[in-house]
Amino acid sequence: MPRYGFNFLWMFSRWGDRSPQPPALDELDFLAHYGFDFVRIPTDYRFWTRDFDYFHPDEGVFEKIDSYLAACQQRGLHMNLNIHRAPGYCINGNHLEKHNLWLDKEAQDAFVFLWETFARRYRDVPSEQLSFDMLNEPPNVGQYGFTRDNHAAVMRRVVAAIRAIHPERQITIDGIGGGGIAVPELADLGVTHSGRGYAPMAISHYQANWWDGHEGLAEPVYPGLEWDGKIWNHDTLAEYYRPWREVQAQGVAVHIGEMGCYSKTPNDVALRWFSDLLGLFKEYGWGYSLWNFDGAFGIINHGRPGARIEKMRGFDVDGDLFDLLLQNRV
After folding, report:
1. Sign of the C-alpha dihedral, residues 120, 13, 8, 132?
2. I want to staple 181 with a disulfide (CB 3.0 to 4.6 A). Which of 45, 156, 177, 320 is the partner?
3. Distance (Å, rounded) from C-alpha 303 to C-alpha 20?
């Protein structure tokens, strides 16, 4: 770290009968050409697990992950393997789980088994090429029986299990409360702490109907948005990330594993917000990973009215947003 790149949703969610997608090689070529070096792969354990039989995974599905890694290795890109839906927890549709990762031994044992399986499978892959991101966006305290103590216990157990197999593997843990709240109680683990670049949600998730808070919001402005008891501007953003700076001051590497702005936010507002956000990340020395490359939060095919679209290596790219990403790398 810092590393810069994008999330790719090839194995992100097994809704319905969806199958894992092959790696988009032209998109990875684009990253390599422009000097990006980070590919985050969120995954859903249900692709390789049937009927909550956690301990007998379909090894054929893991071969798809192998193909993602090989494609990254061939282009000098670092792959960050993330569990987006784990046995017993997902920030999206948690009610679909049979067990509870924070309260049930079955889910915790399965979670450890899963990461031990990946640690063994990729034992010979250097850490410079592959890192493990334990769990996407743990919940708020009080949700699903989640506490800081039982979360810390789960994370410490999994990190120890991985290091027993591969002591040098790079490991990442996400902030809690959906990824945005720092976890100084885990500053001693020697892992990267992954934050989020979505604050304030009234800008980044304006009209995003899967977010409970989207209803009734006025069209956002920036700077000057009034939301959550604050007036949002450059200084408000800096204050929002102060707890992460305090963790960083303890010698912890910080990376923003997800960030982005939904396409319904007016283009001029999105760009001013991105400019402040990315400028702070550059000042702090943090890498970041846009959610995503292709889609409503991405740099291609987001459909945001007013964006300046530029043809680049066969893609119709949001030129102004892409320029900001390039300019704010360390």
Report:
1. negative
2. 177
3. 25
Task: Give the count of alpha carbons within 13 A of 141, CB side only.
Answer: 8
Domain count, the chain: 1
Angle (CA) 292 162 39, round 5°: 20
pTM of the model: 0.97
- What mean pLDDT value characterizes the chain? 97
Q: Please give the average per-residue pLDDT across 19-45, as a whole number.
A: 97
- pLDDT digits over 138-192, tens only? 999 999 999 999 999 999 999 999 999 999 999 999 999 999 999 999 999 999 9
Helices (H), the chain: 25-33, 59-74, 105-121, 148-165, 201-204, 234-240, 242-248, 267-284, 319-327
| DSSP bridge partners of 78 | 38
CATH code: domain of residue 173: 3.20.20.80
At residue 1, the pLDDT reads 60
pLDDT digits (tens, 9 = 90+) for 229-273: 999 999 999 999 999 999 999 999 999 999 999 999 999 999 999
What is the rounded CA–CA span in Å between residue 286 and residue 247? 13
CB under 8 Å to 57, separation ≥6 — which residues? 48, 49, 114, 117
22 preceded by cis ω (within 30°)?
no
How far apart are the C-alpha atoms of 137 and 179, rounded to whole Å?
4
Question: Could you tell me if 173 and 135 are in contact, meaning their C-beta atoms sit under 8 angstroms apart?
Answer: yes
- Full residue range of the structural domain in which residue 9 is found: 4-327
Query: Cα separation of 277 and 273, whole Å?
Result: 6
